[in-house]
Amino acid sequence: FHAKEEKDYQGRSWILPPRDKKNESDSCFLPKRWVHTWAGHTKGVNAVRFFPGTGHLLLSAGMDGKVKIWDVYGSGNNMGVRDVCFSNDGRRFLSTGYDKNIRLWDTETGQCIKSFNTGKVYYCVKFHPSDDKQNVFMSGCQDKKIYQFDTDTGGTQTAWPYTRCGRAYDGIMQWNAECVRGWVWHRPLAHPPTPRASCTAFLNIPATPTPPHPTQVLTYMVKDGRFKSMKNKTFKGHNTAGYACQVGCSPDGKYVMSGDSEGRCFFWEWGAPQKIVRTIKAHDAVCIGAEWNPMESSKVATCGWDGLIKYWD
């Protein structure tokens, strides 16, 4: 945990959000300048995630084998950490790394609650989106399968080829170089695959849009149980060849963003995908991830393989 104090002036724990912090605006605005840097990882940073709802804490996954929590407003493993994910209330989080372990952590104490190991590397991890199923999470594995875990029982159930659970659809989505597939939760019968143009190696898929083609971000919708390509929602201009750069959206859904292999972060308007509205030279190495602060409507955190996390306003 990286902060000046573990308690505020009222003696409250650092996990609690500041009482005086209000949502700045329902509309999001493009960041213009670099305002802060979090430096502490000794190798590249693979992912960053804001605390749900308030964004007062930032979770980061590093190639140095460390998971770090940063105090946003006040400012493990021996092998690389691949992904991190908060529970809905933010009091627990998951991490998965190249040491073949998925770990469940207590956000406040920093203690590891439970560890899951099946002898395989897991590339991504995601809690079930429903509040009453926060004991269930899914993880995409190197063997091209999804595994479902139960934190209460420690049980494991094999699902089907790959990867994240989407909030807008109570199911599981998978993509590889050939197609996109989806499953309804607890019904391991895949919807018919949707053909897909050539893509980079599948390692990561946010909810929407889909992970980038080497030079574009593709968008799909679900209609009548099938994936349908939204050809008028293709975002181009960046270059992610060789990297699984993560795609993000602003909280109001107005903007789409993605890093690229040259360390840049690109922003497009959802309503006008043909035009790049802003480009930031964010990192000296690949910009692998970007995350919009859910509380501060003009602030974005980026992470790169230069080992830095940068904050933009």
Radius of gyration: 19 Å
Poorly predicted regions: 162-171, 189-208
Proportion of β residues? 35-45%
Name the quaternary structure: single chain
Mean pLDDT: 81
Strand order of the largest sheet: 1-28-27-26
Q: Give the overall silhouette.
A: globular
Largest sheet, strands/sense/barrel: 4 strands, antiparallel
Distance between the first and last residues' Cα: 23 Å
The helix/strand order is EEEEEEEEEEEEEEEEEEEEEEEEEEEE
What structural class results from the helix and strand content?
Answer: mainly beta
Helix content: under 10%
Q: Number of DSSP strands?
A: 28
Number of helices: 0
Keywords:
mainly beta, 28 strands, globular
What does this structure look like?
It is a single chain. With 313 residues, the chain is mostly beta strands. It has no helices and 28 strands. It has strands spanning 34-39, 45-50, 57-62, 67-71, 81-86, 92-97, 102-106, 112-116, 122-127, 136-141, 146-150, 156-158, 165-166, 171-175, 179-184, 194-195, 212-213, 216-217, 220-223, 226-229, 235-236, 247-249, 255-259, 264-269, 272-281, 287-292, 300-304, 308-312. Strands 1-28-27-26 form a four-stranded antiparallel beta sheet, with no helix packed on it. A four-stranded antiparallel beta sheet has the order 5-6-7-8, with no helix packed on it. Strand 2 and strand 3 form a beta hairpin. The chain starts with 33 loop residues before the first strand and ends with a strand. The model is unreliable at 162-171 and 189-208 (pLDDT under 50).
